[in-house]
Amino acid sequence: MRFPASTLTTALLCMSRSAAFVVAKRGASSVCRRSSLMPSFLQLPRMMTVCHLSSSTTSSSSSSSGTEVSKPIEVFRKDYQPLPYKVDTIELDIQLEPRKTTITTQMTIISSSPTVTLDGDRSVIELQHVLLNGTLLQEGTDYQVTASELTLLQVPLHTPFQLTIQVTTIPEDNTELSGLYQDSSGMYCTQMEAMGFRRFTYMADRPDQMATFSKVRIEADKEQYPVLLSNGNLLEQGSCNDNNNRHYAIWQDPFPKPTYLFAMVAGNLGKIQDEYTTKSGRRVDLQIFAEPHQTHLLHYAMLSLKRAMQWDEDRYGLEYDLDLYNIVAVDSFNMGAMENKGLNVFNTAYVLADPATATDTDFERVESVIGHEYFHNWTGNRVTCRDWFQLTLKEGLTVFRDQEFSADMNSAAVNRIENVRALRGRQFAEDAGPMAHPIRPESYISMDNFYTATVYSKGAEVIRMYQTILGVEGFNQGLKLYLERHDGQAVTCDDFLQAMADANPDIDLTLFRRWYSTPGTPVVKYRGEWNEDGTYQLQLEQETSDGEPLHIPVAVGLLDQATGEEVVSTQVLNLKESQQTFTFSDLAGPVVPSILRTFSAPVKLVPLEKDNESLALAFLAAHDTDGFNRWEAVQRLYTSLIFQHLPSKEESSSSSWNYVEQAFARTLDTCLDNSDYSISAYVLTLPSESTLAEEMDMIDPIGLHQARSTVKQQLARRFESVLMEKYSALTELLSQTKELKFDATSIGLRRLRNVLLDYLCSLTDTPEERDRAAQLAMNHYQAATGMTDQMAGLSSLVSIDTPHRQDALDQFYQQAVGNSLVLNKWFTVQALANTPNSLETIQQLYQHPDFTLKNPNRVRALVGAFTMNAVAFHQPAGYQFLGDVLLAVDALNPQLSSRLASPLIQWRKYVTGKLMKEQLERLLAQPKLSDDLYEITDKLAAMAARQQGDGRETSEEAPVIKRDKFAALAARQVEETTTTTTLPKRDKFAAMAARPIIEQQPTEEATSKENRISELQQRCQQRDAIYADLDQAEALVIQLLQVAQDTATALSSNQEVSVSQYQSTLQHIHALLQPHAQYVQAYQAPSTTTRMYQTRVEWRLAVEAQEILQDYRALERMEP
């Protein structure tokens, strides 16, 4: 895999994913019916769609001047067609020369079509010649070449033929790190997934084209590149007969594979070696390569590899199938790692580790990613995906497998908590933003943008639900059948589901299929009722993005309310309807439910009645037998208390503080008696700001940061003496062990101690407290025996105004010289510092001699960390700085720039959203923007227009018009105005947007930069006028909602309400709002991945009052 380095219903006046569940579930007519309380203009509008039809990610055309331009094209899953030809075998000859690499490809092909089209990126490779069965072909007569394709015009039908293609390329200039490139150490290496092979040579570059690479010959300078590697087994190596300064190696992979799994490496590398004997008795040689000075950092990776090989045999009976397994560590790498058959290429961050350079978390990641890439040998390589829309088939399944591996190697409960924290912090945000998509997307412009938390992490949760529903044995039988049935094939998610269903015929998985096509995070609501006859009824309701139910496994246990004892052990309830009630019998007394144990489904759990929620959470925090749910209960108590400290809240509840205080005290009291110290550490840790933000309708990032800091300080001050006592006890305990160990217990002890340090160092209000905290952190840093404790001490120091801060940073920098991974930590720790001048520090580091935009790890270390720092990032200068970086990075590495843009993903949910949006508009206004970054910013800003689906050609000379916010809605209007003199009576947006597009279509003469700027200014003026109307409409609608909310509140409190006065008030607001009614509309395309085109009003309404429908229903019942 490419392991990522590193996520609604129509309401009364709007349509948004967060609110759309109720209407879609109950039906629009039942909610939005006309009444005296709902004027006609509030009825749902007719849905409007925007279509995009294409078959490739880029399309080339010629402008009037003959200049070739590339236009983004959207590719759809429904348009999949198998190729009319099959490449059976491939032989490669790769001649590595300075600034000129020659690649000769010989393919055996059989075709049912007279024409054969191959993928190739002419911006990177230069075609030298083409031979068909040994005959030299002529361009124009025998073949044609465009920017992205080579088409053979006449090939033999239904009989094998030999095609030879020779190209040259310059890997040294390939800063995108896709295809063949040279990394910072001078090593040549490849990265082919998803579409890098077309940047290497011409070929059918898609996963369903599986060929046998029967011979790969690599030739290079013997002294500079003594190690030559490729997939499979080494057949031959030696010096070149015609030049003794050069040497060669010949590799063969007997297993058919798609192009994305091809790899080659050439460099001056050191290695460590070992061997593994499979259960069947076959010996496998294991080699891990890195730069010579890094080989001492490879031993933990080798240990992890052998553990993974044995685990896969023990758990699933899967053995490795080649005689040799190679791993290479590469410093300049876009992703985490790549599972190329027999030759894994790894980012150094996920393979190099020793106590002096890697934290405990680094060690855990190395073990996890090593396992992940090895597990791909069966779930990804032997059985791969038919097309890139099926990416989760291999990635979701393999993430699940590596999670199970890590759970067995360490603590299952801790592993589950860590995975869910990551899911909520990233994937839930993705689900709530414009880039939301199902785990199997329906369309893409740049496939690189869909290596997402949804495809990987949520995809893994979907696989986990299979196991929850079928049981471990049933799941294992299904996986076995899947691998046996499809070995050597490229298949789909439907094939996987069918294998699971066939292996478990007694379980109906029909509805489960919808998880592959439904975007968004489902919400499960619950209500319980105890009956005197000894029964307990649990009512569950589900809300999904399209209103249709999913098959959701809900793991539930029951605890006795009086004793806290578990009276019903975990049972899996299969929620398949919008609302279901489950009954538990033969109970001795009232019970408290423990719902969604071990996080049995990727959903949000919400009580239907919140009156006693905190009391129930406090009970579960004290008594729940499920480790995950006990942690979850405390996290929800923390969340409630933190939200009460937001600037918009006047005061916090004393009961909330009491519940948190009790849970915190109980955990502190028993933390040294618990065998799993990591669980205690996580229970004591407050929810992250990203996790908290997912629970907020409108995010004030600075306010949230301050609220969380306040609660943290309050807890630290309340328990300061106990925190210090436990910290000292742990310090003494750890000092008794001279050897630094990386077992679960040792990691847990360090993790717990560092959490206590973090609390103690948060007390810095007075000079005395600052000095005390700084000294404690400095002592912790200097006494550290490994990188984990060293980073914990340094992380605390950098946020304290003390001379120790710079002293420690200078010491750490000297320690980091010569080790890029440690140097990355030096950049990161400063980027995350909580200081008033943190942005200025980050900008200075951006100019540091050791910082480079050409190394993705270095960019992520500084810029990626910066976007996680609320104080530094969420300010005008912070957004401006990110925009500057994105433009600079996009010119070098589009994959990296698109990922760095993700912090802007939910700009509409932020109180500072207008400032964030300005940077998106600035990016979209650029005449040259990569497809990767364009697709991200396009959807984030909801401003994109791609008109290819309407059959209209759009000149690249007018990028601002093509990418204008309203052009998507106007595209249909332009076409219609060619045959009609008046615009159809549709939305005001479309009408206003269509006119400037029609009137301002650029002529050949109006292509200068000045004219484009003038056009942009006119568009901005028109948009500002629309926004002025929007502001007025927004204020009125919010006023309308407030009147309804206040009246409903009065009704629920049994206060007297004058219905006539209420109706008069509403009618007055309606009259004022009527001229702006067109703005209170929404449009949804049929494709689940073509996002809604929404206005600011709709987004604001979606977060103003999610219960507004209930208020209106109550008012209607009161209507005379």
TrEMBL record:
A single GO molecular function term of this UniProt record: metallopeptidase activity
The alphabetized UniProt keywords are: Aminopeptidase, Hydrolase, Metal-binding, Metalloprotease, Protease, Signal, Zinc
Q: Which Pfam families match?
A: DUF3458, DUF3458_C, Peptidase_M1, Peptidase_M1_N
Under Enzyme Commission nomenclature, its number is 3.4.11.2
Necessary cofactors: Zn(2+)
Identify the residues that the record assigns to the Peptidase M1 alanyl aminopeptidase Ig-like fold domain, covering every copy.
520-605
- CDD domains of this UniProt entry? M1_APN (cd09600)
Q: Give GO terms for biological process.
A: proteolysis
**Keyword presence, Signal:** yes
Q: Which positions fall inside the Peptidase M1 alanyl aminopeptidase C-terminal domain? A: 616-940
| Domain Peptidase M1 membrane alanine aminopeptidase: residue ranges | 300-508
Q: Where is the Aminopeptidase N-like N-terminal domain?
A: 90-261
> Entry's InterPro entries?
Aminopeptidase_N-like_N, Aminopeptidase_N-like_N_sf, PepN_Ig-like_sf, Peptidase_M1, Peptidase_M1_dom, Peptidase_M1_pepN, Peptidase_M1_pepN_C, Peptidase_M1_pepN_C_sf
- Annotated signal peptide: 1-20
Protein family (similarity comment): Belongs to the peptidase M1 family.
Q: Known PANTHER family for this protein?
A: PUROMYCIN-SENSITIVE AMINOPEPTIDASE
The name this protein carries in UniProt is Aminopeptidase N
Organism the protein comes from: Fistulifera solaris
Q: What is the lineage of its organism?
A: Eukaryota, Sar, Stramenopiles, Ochrophyta, Bacillariophyta
